[in-house]
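User: I'm putting together a small comparison set for a docking exercise, and I want a reference complex before I start. The sequence is below, and the ligand is pyridoxal-5'-phosphate. Could you produce the 3D structure with the ligand included, as structure tokens?
Assistant: Of course. I'll restate your input first, then give the structure tokens for the complex.
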Amino acid sequence: MSKTPDFKPVRANAPANATAHAASNAEPAGYIDDFRRAGHETVDWIAQYLSSLGDRQVLAATKPGQLYDALPASAPQQGESFEAILRDFDQLVMPAVTQWNHPRFFAYFACTGTTPAVLGEMLAAALNTNGLHWKTSPAVAELEQKTLDWLRQWLGLPGGESKNPWFGIVYDTASTSSMHAIVCAREMVDPEARVHGANHGNKGDLVLYTSDQAHSSIEKGAIAVGIGQKNVRKVPSDAQFRMNADTLAAMVAEDKAAGKRPFCVVATIGTTSSTSVDPLPQIVDVAEKYGMWVHVDCAYAGAAAVLPEHKHILAAAERAHSLVFNAHKWLLTPIDLSAFYTRRPDILRQAFSLTPEYLKTTDDPRAHNLMDYGVPLGHRFRALKLWFVLRYFGRERIEAMVRQHIEWAQRLAALVDADPRFERVAPVPFSVVCFRFKGSDDQNRLIMEKVNASGRVFISGTVLNGKQVIRLAIGNLHTVWEDVQEAWDLVAKAAGEV
Ligand code: PLP
């Protein structure tokens, strides 16, 4: 990384002949000075908050409606001071916050909003720049392209050296990313649908395939795009919750014979419930035979592909058409930042651009107009926080964290296996352990309630093979092994009480 000059306040970089801008009528007196003072205080507050997070309750101890009722019925007529706003934030809002940044947040997929990303977000808000078009903010388009290219290299996807370099764009969530993938899939097999609608010409329903373990966002995306819920075929998974590729092949052949049009397969690398890994090479084989688009959802587990020893989880991804990875899960970036990659940016643009190609001849091919690559017109400077994260932590630190979390999950799995009252219900390929008390579903739910009621830990459950399962997800930067051990001790203690 080249040496950059020390960061100086913007004023220091302003043109020599700059004059102070006159204040508008709407600007409170002391507007900038207020911000400087309250800004310093807020950064101090954040530092104190982050350094003492482990002492807080993980789950908000708030009753429904409590915060709502505590807030004034209408907005103030006269502006208020930062002091008043920050006091209410601390006293009223904070008790209603569930602490996703907490080292003992083990529910869903644990995550971290790290300090470099907080600064990146602050700067993005200050700039308030909108990268809808290259010209409206070259920095938004180009920094995003570069940052996603760095991330692409870490994920091991093909770049400039290949015939089909992967193109990346930042959307808000994996749900949005996957919906865009489904539109691309339709555009590839039925480009006329863009003009005539999904069911034009009675050519047979378009059918999408994904496993019975896929995230609900895939089905939602298909519903939103007009594919129809009945045309989302859930391929059964095997005993380890992986899509059965032979069954996929049989279902596609059957649908094809019935006059339907199989157009898209979504494989998941790291499913939400058990983090199982679909057999991507075999899935791609089936899809290639029938000319289908393959979308890879590695929203959570993509972070593990950064490790050389886990690179294999994305084997054959280079033959897929698109992939989504959420930096806001295991990659130290606060919600929201979803990286969507495709090796067919031409199709993505064809699907979403409303400016005909022939009008674009004056455009520089290096000037990407991000509005042409998706539904939203406006494009937030989200990549800035990811750029801060990748630079501040570097690959080595990120690898070390992810590797450590995976090791701890193995250690926890060994504790579960050694306790005859429990059974582990899924393999542990990453940092999530799924297990159950050998009793009723109600007893398992009660164990989780007791553990969470302690305020020390937050775990969540899922259903696997029709049974209630306890699920512990490691993924926070601040977590240490003692936190995981404490969670297990609480589970083991609760099991003695149900
Ligand atoms: N895909 C997978 C595998 C997930 O686990 C999740 C959420 O946990 C999603 C997609 C949806 O992510 P988002 O909230 O970014 O839409």
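Residues 1-5 have pLDDT under 50 and may be disordered. The first helix runs from residue 10 to 13.
User: Thanks, that's exactly what I needed.
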